[in-house]
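Hey, quick one: can you model this chain's 3D structure?
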Amino acid sequence: MTQTGSTSLNTARTASKTSPGKSTSSKQTTNTRAENLYQATRSHILRDGLQLVLDPIRSHGATIINALNGRDYINFHGGYRSNALGENHPGFTAQDYENIARATINKQAHAHIYTPDQLQAINTIAQRYMQPAGFERAFFIDGGALALENALKIALRNHALNRQTENSDTLQTDALQDGVIIGMHGAFHGHSGLTMTLSRSDPSKAEFMPRLPWPAVPTPYQERDVSACVYALEKQLAEYAPRVAGLVIEPIQCEGGDRFIPKSYFVALRRLADAHHFSLIYDETQTGFFVTGRAFAFQALNLPAPDLICGAKKSSIGYVFANHRVLAVPHNAFEVSGKINSTWGGHGGDYLVCARKLELIEQYKLAEHAQRQGRKLLEKLANLSAHYPSLIVAPRGLGLLIAIDCPSGEIRDRLIAECFKQRLLLLTGGVPKAGPFTVRFGPPLSVTDDEVETGMARFEKALCELRNALRPPGSKCHPPLITNE
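Sure thing. Here's the predicted structure for all 485 residues.
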């Protein structure tokens, strides 16, 4: 393809949708097979998701087809915001599919054996994603939680190495166990061991699980709260000194409700990390990979750079990137074999998918596209919140990372359920009982104008239906603001 930008993307999508497809009988066969499989798996797994089986052939972009009923759904859930380019992006070629399939079927243990395609993909990732953001070395693994686990290991090792240098006569060999990582209230970092210790958005997710006695500090969501939160952090640093190895923070707290944190707090974190010699770690699992219009949210928000950054989801592969400050420590984990490791060293196919996504983001100018489409979504949400103030408030976002709040968890959950009835998929967010009670949007970077209009029309229909259900009998909803359907 020689064209770039959203115009060529829309053209390709239109051609794909209007080309001859399966016959009605073939679609019925697909639906029957999906229904049979859906019922058969009930006894094999905890199937607590949506009553939806995605058709991988007929789905395109943010428009997915439910193989159970053949109906289209607008996917602003985005696989927990993991789908960067939507379904079946037209930029992927037959050769791409062949290369990715080969790397997936012949899955290599990349800890010791490399492939040309993997190495080429790493170069592409470095040149288009890692190095422009100021990071020099990378470690790859499957998934965001495991990426953060390894970022913590890197920080803990550097902390121990620094202390060993300073106290070579008194430090025990198990000094790594003495390190402490500070977390943030309202944060979520994953479902693995160390990440559950640091996750404090939904306590039930760590139910019955052992947790390290690591401290957490309050998170400021308003400028007026920054000084008090910095003071609380300084008290923790004094209490745990000199054991603090790192501090982990999301540039935007996503599962916690897409809550923004003032820049001045990050400036203070950078100052304290430098003064107390601990690693500042940004978890950009949901905020990375151009969803904000920049490679990372810390760039879009003009925040001080971290020492370590980790993520996954839209990138298809888990990563930890390190800057010069981490690499300046002799015998750090990027120098010494086996200190961070994984059999697969990242999934072979995921390397290729990540690299190809980066090329397509550049080719189709999807970073800029995400900013434009995000502004449209946010403007429509602002208009809707003005007409439905009893149901939704506080529209906010950056790029396509967008959210809105409901007055209670019950209303939020009913709205999400009504959206599903209207064939729109969305995400919940926030802290149980405490709030905020958030509805989160996660469309792909490639979301089209038609998908934005259709999705928001369905969202308004859901709002209207919910308000009618909550108001006294006989009263009616106002005429729709968005009339795409």
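One thing worth noting: Confidence is low (pLDDT under 50) at residues 1-22, 169-176.
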